[in-house]
């Protein structure tokens, strides 16, 4: 079977070479992070006791777009109102007319608290998340006119988020010198899904403990996660005006035609000269000031969510944001958009492994001869193999640091599943992108949420 031998060799060289390229990229980030550690720039400072009880000096708005979120939105709203004692905050929740269950859950959770505003969305849902955010922005503008004063900042959250009590005061403190602030996101463990939901633990632990810290230190553009982030009010007004000037219409500062409007807005803030910060601090009790949430528990739901991320960041990001900016920005854009290529390389690596097993099973002479390494393949395989071990070590260390030894050990077993989800979502994202080129409209392909980290647990 000469064709299988040729396929094995080509797949092996291709996957080993590009795995090595990706590993070099990751090693550079690892090196920069270690330099920051040695210089003492990674240790999260602790907030003083009572910090979260301070009143805001000026009003602040929180936007929560919601579509078919009746299972979690009530807990989110109630927890936020209980966690934040500040009277100068107002939570705007977008509710669609054809989703009465979500609206009822919002109003029931608010218990008449004047800080809560359920905003009727004037179109049938789902539109897009950005469209919902823009309508919340217009509602804020109307309230500002009526009150005769503007808010100092807008905080973005999702319907399933568990907010931290200290975040509003922290946002105000940091926004005194910058225009955009992003806090860490922590994926909470789900008892019924230690593997699919659990792989988000590993990815966010490394991304928001290392990668975002490095990006912040390098001074490059910081993408918004869409949750646990705050944008100065004046910057949002400039973004709104910029979209009107650039022909984006007057719908608002968020791009309805973009699947990852949050990611894009972080880049747009940087390109208009805005200053951004990624902030890791701990409260007086030692807990990380972060947004906590449950992520998809089922394979299909995880693939759907990551399809939207890959489509919006890799494909739409290339089309809409291009490659301008500093060298650091271009490097980080390349890292952000490498998901489709990484999925192709992973698929080739798995195909190489399967092909190699088939050839080994054939036995001598064909099988053994085909598996005999050449100097180049030997070098690539050795380097990429060592790099893979290093990546697993990093995954284990960051997951252990954030979630303990059990989750750290699970992270090693979850790595192959994470790769399979990446491959499946990249394939689906490519199909969706090609469909968009043929005129398929952008829709809110939202993630289903059935549980909330702040919800009381049922006794066993």
Automatic annotation (TrEMBL):
Pfam families registered for this protein in UniProt: Glyco_tranf_2_3
Entry annotated with the keyword Endoplasmic reticulum: no
Compartments reported by the entry: Membrane
Topology within the bilayer: Multi-pass membrane protein
Keywords, ordered alphabetically: Glycosyltransferase, Membrane, Transferase, Transmembrane, Transmembrane helix
Molecular-function GO terms, alphabetical: glycosyltransferase activity
One cellular component term from this protein's GO annotations in UniProt: membrane
Transmembrane segments: 12-38, 339-359, 379-398
InterPro entries for the chain: Glycosyltr_2/OpgH_subfam (IPR050321), Nucleotide-diphossugar_trans (IPR029044)
Name listed for the protein in its UniProt record: Glycosyl transferase family protein
Species this chain originates from: Novosphingobium aerophilum
Higher taxonomy: Bacteria, Pseudomonadati, Pseudomonadota, Alphaproteobacteria, Sphingomonadales
